[in-house]
Amino acid sequence: MRTIHSIFNASPAHLLQQVVMVDDFSTKDHLKAKLEEYIKLPRFENKIKLVRTTEREGLIRGRIIGAQNSDAEVVVFLDAHCECGKNWLPPLLAEVALNR
């Protein structure tokens, strides 16, 4: 959840449309019902979508599944160990906007 917290803490809320979390067939108990309840907390503004695979898919297929389940105009992939710095998102989106 470190990555998720850093996304929400370091991103302007109006620019953050959705966060898709892909659970690649995890067997860890804390990633089951407890996680589903946690991401419903008001601080996440219903912007987190949790997608669970029915078998191990691996990194690349997991990212494809995440992209297929996203409703956002721009998709950014982050791994679980990533931490976003303050206002990391505006310059990234500005470059995307320039190239449209």
Plain-language structure description:
- The protein is of the alpha+beta class and 100 residues long.
- It has four helices and two strands, in the order H-E-H-E-H-H.
- Strand 1 (19-23), helix 2 and strand 2 (48-52) form a beta-alpha-beta unit.
- It starts with a helix and ends with a helix.
- The model has no long low-confidence stretch (mean pLDDT 96).
CA-to-CA gap between the ends?
A: 32 Å
Number of strands: 2
Q: What is the helix fraction of residues, given as a range?
A: 25-40%
Order of neighbouring strands in the sheet with most strands:
1-2
> What Rg do the Cα atoms give?
14 Å
Per DSSP, the total helix count is 4
Strand count, sense and closure of the main sheet?
A: 2 strands, parallel
Uncertain segments are: none
Secondary-structure-based class equals: alpha+beta
Sequence of secondary-structure elements: HEHEHH
Strand content: 5-15%
What is the 3D shape?
globular
Averaging pLDDT over every residue, what do you get? 96
